[in-house]
Design brief:
9-stranded mixed β-sheet, binds flavin-adenine dinucleotide, 7 helices, FAD/NAD(P)-binding domain, single chain
Length: about 400
């Protein structure tokens, strides 16, 4: 069998690349070993957001692109992506003053094109009591701004469904076990329930998320693997103890922690912990659980948290290897190709759920020299995303 593009992995990046490739008119096959969004794409904070905190590390390009994609997804997927008001409380001992938060939110609005949905406000003191249970001592200010929330796995399934409607094929469960590449094409070995198939393609796109290095290691002739590392992020899922959305600063280390009502539960996260081992073994540690509970209790001291009803989940970020702490590291997607002029293998690593569409279009541009010209079927910026029922 022969395809223009074989995509390994049906997380959000694989689904996005398949959708963009099918829309551009290419023949495309997606190979997924477990289920759509079985990896990181069902374990995120479920925000379609610009990333307010990335302003501090001057990642303006990423913020602008994310805000643009957020606006687009609110239009294309209104059943899956919904705007939510987030509250940022500022205390006497907060790292960032009210002035700094105001400046950050102003810049954020500007980068969002001063769109109505990007405007923020500062709550009057008389409104603080509406923030049920939020600690009020030493509270100096509360800001409200907007981000969008989604069901990450449902969004991934919907993008994958869109890819299939546009003509992509899906092989699942099916595992990529190896490939040989040469100047003209790639021959991928795919293990399915009925045996191993050899599938030829012009380009192979590695969207295996935390398994990306494992996939690269199975390709011959060997290609150099970019220096990446896995950083675990965990969340708590609690009963619906609060009905408002908060963006807090962890008292222990001043990192950002979200407290978000989500699908009838309360989600608290996230953490950052170096991870080594098989990606499918990622699990929230007792230390991460305690850190998140301590943050929640610090801001909502009266909250009674039923121990027996605390669920957790853990996902893995793919980040560039570095000695700096994970929180400060760039969150832009990383592309790695075997050959800049005529790529046969492209790895798409890290990045954001929010920017999957822009990432996919950029990936196709990188692959263009190795692909024939095709008649476009659709424009991903105009294709509505329908939930999969
Ligand atoms: C804790 C955390 C919170 C986050 N929060 C947000 C957020 O709120 N907003 C945001 O925009 N982004 C967020 N992100 C980032 C975002 O979730 C990820 O960038 C994105 O989900 C990565 O998707 P992916 O497709 O690259 O990987 P994955 O979703 O992991 O997909 C990889 C897929 O490849 C498959 N696979 C692997 N090996 C093989 C093989 N050999 N053969 C076949 N299939 C294979 C796996 O089964 C899996 O389904 C967060 C990330 C983390 C870790």
């Amino acid at each position: 069998m022969k395809y223009d593009i074989v995509v390994i992995g049906a997380g959000i990046q694989g689904a996005g690349v398949a959708q963009a490739a099918a829309a551009a008119g290419y023949s495309v096959l997606v190979v997924e070993q477990t289920a759509p969004a079985a990896g990181t794409s069902s374990k995120s904070s479920k925000l379609i957001h610009g990333g307010l905190r990335y302003l501090e590390t001057a990642q303006f390009g990423l913020v602008r692109e994310s805000l643009r994609e957020r606006a687009l997804l609110l239009r294309l997927a209104p059943e899956l992506v919904k705007l939510r008001p987030l509250h940022i409380p500022v205390y006497q001992d907060s790292t960032r003053s009210a002035l700094t938060i105001r400046a950050g939110l102003s810049l954020y609005s500007v980068l969002a094109g001063l769109h109505k949905k990007s405007l923020f406000s500062q709550l009057g003191r008389n409104e603080w009591k509406t923030l049920a249970g939020l600690r009020q001592d030493n509270l100096k200010a509360v800001f409200r701004y907007y981000e969008a929330q989604t069901d990450d796995a449902a969004l991934t399934r919907s993008v994958l469904q869109s890819a299939v409607i546009l003509g992509a094929d899906l092989l699942m469960p099916a595992r990529f076990v190896g490939a040989e590449r040469n100047g003209q094409n790639c021959k991928a070995e795919i293990e399915t329930e009925s045996g191993t198939e050899s599938i030829s393609c012009r380009v192979l796109v590695n969207c295996a998320g935390p398994w990306a290095s494992e996939v690269l290691a199975r390709i011959t002739p060997a290609l150099s693997s970019p220096a990446i590392e896995l950083v675990q992020g965990s969340h708590l899922l609690l009963p619906p103890l609060l009905d408002q959305y908060f963006y807090l600063e962890a008292p222990q280390d001043k990192r950002a922690v979200f407290v978000l009502p989500w699908e009838g539960r309360l989600m608290v996260g996230t953490t950052e912990k170096a991870f080594v081992g098989a990606p499918e073994k990622a699990i929230c540690s007792a230390e991460e659980r305690d850190y998140l509970l301590a943050t929640l209790r610090h801001y909502f001291p009266q909250l009674v948290i039923p121990e027996a009803e605390i669920d957790t989940f853990a996902g893995l970020r793919v980040l560039p290897k570095s000695d700096t702490n994970a929180f400060a590291r760039p969150r832009e997607v990383m592309f790695a190709v075997d050959n800049e002029m005529h790529p046969r293998v492209l790895s798409v690593m890290g990045g954001k759920l929010t920017t999957y569409r822009a990432t996919a279009e950029a990936a196709l541009l990188r692959l263009a020299p190795s692909l024939p010209t095709k008649e476009r079927r659709a424009d991903t910026a105009l294709v509505s995303l329908i939930p999969v029922h």
